[in-house]
Amino acid sequence: MLSEKTIQVVKSTLPLLAEAGPQVTEYFYDRMFSYNPELKNIFNMTHQKSGHQQFALFNALAAYAANIDNLEVLKSALARINHKHTSYHILPEHYSIVGGHLIATLKELLPEQFTPEVEYAWREAYALLADVCITEEMALYQKTKQAKGGWFGTRLFTITKKHVESDSITSFTLTPCDGKPVVSHLPGQYLGIKVHSKKTENTQIRQYSISQKSNGENYRISVKREGLVSNYLHSLDEGEHIEVYPPAGDFVLRESNCPVVFISAGVGQTPLLAMLQSLLDKQPSQPIHYLHACDNAAQYAFKDYLLSEVNTHQGLSCFTWFKEGAGADFTGLMDVALLTEKLPLSDGAFYICGPIAFMALIKQQLVNLGVAAERIHYEVFGPHQSL
Q: Can you give the residue ranges of the Globin domain (predicted)?
């Protein structure tokens, strides 16, 4: 536990962090990659170029400093970070490297304010945070490794099936090369995919949601053709191999008997499909509403599957929005209020996945319609942000 003095010293640096802004983390990453270029094989360098990772880390630092005496407030955020770290195969030794560069960054950017007393407090505070994260992440690694079909690190998988779902989304069925079972995943979790593209000098790791329920034999990911790694995956053929980290992620279907509403846009369908399949398998009579938005009919992935399930399950209803063109129930931006009389606004569980702007819009719509915030669950691709 941290002393009261350490807590107060760390909290006193909040104005310094606010004044310095995200340039602290930009300097930190530049410094770290200069001294430890091997970490470029772990970190998402696309997020580095866009500034998203720097922004996310700055927010995390500020949140930690503000709540250092009550880490329970950060429990859900830390759980999400821990899961994401396991999909990158972050290990205890990485924390000492990151911590060293963080302290050095603060000393170099704020030499007058970052006194020996402040440095000591931040070293203690970082050590506590690192210990919490390492403990949780090693527990996740151990649990997955010991489970039936589990493994640690990467495992070689074969692309046993490619299936075009829309003009931009293709599904890949991944089967382990060793022919052994795969560990069960919770509906909504993702895989870390490690690739070696000739178009970049660094190994690239990306996370892709598993778009089918757990079956113990294989996984399916459904990938939109955009970005370096996604385009690389689309170039691969059936029979080729990729390296895969075990399933991770805390955006998962929660057990309950209440009605469920899934709301997605674009490739945000992927984790919700696994949830939908699992729910239909275990609780086929449970009321389920599926709302989906995309640009047009050509971009509507999994249409045939959803229509088939609607025809099979009386409790399932599906509504679509297209920005343009015919073939959907509604045209334009999704407006949940159009379904007010159909949706379980008072007692339903709502799961949202899609672009950040879309999720922020839908969350606000739901709140305006009286849906309690604790019944709204969402997944942000990339560095986590609040809606």
A: 1-138
